[in-house]
Amino acid sequence: MTFSEFSPTQPVILGFDPGKDKCGLAIMGLDRQLHYHQVVPSQEAVTTIGVLCQQFPVSLMVMGNQTTAKRWKQQLNQELVEPLNIVLVDERYSTLEARDRYWQMYPPKGLIKLLPQGMRQPPRPIDDIVAILLIERYLNRLTEPINS
Question: What angle do CA 132, 104, 7 make, to 5 degrees?
Fold first, then answer.
């Protein structure tokens, strides 16, 4: 579990990358300050989301729009004590992007540094980093200029 040292007082966004076996979770402020990220087993995701909503002032959830999104959205609406506003975000290519981001967040050490980045595999699941990217995609969409 990765927490930042300060608990936010401003509303935050909960990023959720749902999966069959494991899910990525992230909490980020509107200022793009990352407060939490973790990969959890799928069967623990709803409980963990409930706990996060008690610990942080979550204003909405951003979730990937692919394979299992519809089922997860329905399950969350049924099982969470406080229903969340859920926004679906395009998650195409997010896993590839998350692999690159992993190496930015955790620069390689030792012999792994010598491998070209495209050949490096992160040593752990990166679903939490996908959740971070989903939040960023949502925030980027909010700040894009409207074409007239």
Answer: 45
68-93 per-position pLDDT tens digit: 888 899 899 888 888 889 999 999 99
**Dihedral over Cα of 55, 2, 19, 101: its sign:** positive
Close Cβ partners of 24 (under 8 Å, ≥ 6 residues apart): 15, 16, 17, 37, 38, 39, 125, 126, 127, 128, 129, 130, 131
Q: Give the span between the Cα atoms of 13 and 39, in whole angstroms.
A: 17
Report the alpha-carbon distance of residue 143 to residue 73 in Å, rounded: 25
Sign of CA dihedral 76, 73, 18, 35: negative
- The count of residues in the chain is 148
Please check whether residue 57 is in contact with residue 35, taking contact to mean a CB–CB distance below 8 angstroms: no
Q: Which long-range contacts (CB under 8 A, 24 or more apart) does 66-70 make?
A: 66/91, 66/92, 68/18, 68/19, 68/20, 69/18
pTM: 0.87
Residues 101 and 117: beta-carbon distance below 8 Å: no
